[in-house]
Write a structure and sequence with these properties.
Endo/exonuclease/phosphatase, 2 domains, exonuclease, 12 strands, Deoxyribonuclease I, Chain A, hydrolase, exonuclease activity
Length: 310
């Protein structure tokens, strides 16, 4: 009986470790969901290896434990690779941003979300799957008179960017080949400091090769926008995904040392960050925090503050 239980633990652990290790050989889109959970799965495999060793003292359990710990540690290292040095908290914030995928059928909470947005103090608000806020636009525009999306620049209401300051040359682009109008590009002047602002909504990474094509589009667009830049939105994958790692490295993007988990809601702080706020120098992220109330969405929203290096 002990041998059977040990065998089951060993087979399952080996399968998990093999799946998350394939990223080092080939970025295969069907496994991208598992890549995002590399640290979680490696930690679970380590616990299973310890359990297997307690059941039966065997070298194979020690081997899987060692591999699990290596994969978990490397996952943490990869997540921290793009962390920017902390900004002095005494440095005043240049502006405040909210980014939130509110879920497109979340109509019951549209009014409460609008109340939260108005009271947030954010200078710029990026709402994805924004249909529930369409009926709330008249009162939102009293606080945020400048916007793009939901009838302005696109007929769809997937992306809505609201701003207290004028949007300079706002435009909308397609990303990849699957969905239309999922990237908004604009420039906002904050007291003489112009910042390029991109709000993106990417496809789920296991939908064929579409997510990778969207990343490639972003990698072509970002270099055409000189100066400080913000890229925020729902990437549907964590920073551990190989294509997101490529984007961060190739475009010199940075983030905070510990991104807040935004999905799944039920996991709370133990979930993964699939909604991101990235910046490019000389713009720096001063802080990113999770909006603790999901307001019925299947994502948590994010609030970020930015500063500019002298």
């Amino acid at each position: 009986m002990r041998d059977t239980i040990f065998c089951v633990f060993s087979v399952l652990t080996t399968l998990v470790l093999t799946i998350i290790s394939l990223r080092y050989v080939k970025d295969f889109y069907l496994l991208s969901f598992f890549y995002s959970f590399q640290v979680h799965l490696a930690a679970a495999a380590a616990a299973a290896s310890v359990a297997a060793f307690l059941i039966k003292r065997h070298w194979y359990a020690l081997l899987t434990l060692g591999v699990s710990l290596i994969l978990a540690v490397h996952g943490v290292v990869m997540a921290r690779e793009f962390a920017e040095p902390a900004v002095d908290q005494n440095r005043p914030a240049l502006f405040k941003l909210m980014s939130f995928n509110i879920e497109n059928d979340n109509f019951a909470n549209g009014g409460d979300i609008a109340d939260m947005v108005i009271a947030s103090g954010a200078d710029v608000v990026s709402i994805l799957e924004a249909e529930p806020l369409l009926s709330e636009l008249p009162r939102l525009l009293k606080t945020y008179p400048y916007y793009i999306g939901c009838g302005v620049g696109m007929q769809e209401c997937d992306t809505l960017v609201l701003s207290k300051r004028p949007l300079i040359e706002p435009r909308i682009r397609n990303l990849g080949l699957l969905w239309r109008n999922r990237l908004t590009i604009s420039t906002i002047d904050f007291d003489g400091q112009k910042v390029n602002f991109l709000a993106a909504h990417l496809t789920k990474p296991y939908y064929d090769e579409f997510h990778g094509l969207e990343i490639e589009d972003l990698a072509e667009i970002i270099p055409s926008l000189p100066g400080p830049l913000v890229l925020a939105g729902d990437f549907n994958t964590s920073i551990l995904a190989p294509d997101v790692q490529y984007l961060m490295r190739s475009q010199g993007l940075g983030t905070v040392s510990l991104e807040p988990a935004t999905w799944p809601i039920a996991a709370g702080a133990f979930g993964i960050p699939i909604d991101h706020v990235f910046s490019r120098a000389p713009l720096r992220l001063k802080s990113v925090r999770r909006i603790e109330n999901s307001f019925g969405s299947n994502h948590f929203g994010l609030m970020a503050e930015f500063a500019v290096d002298p």
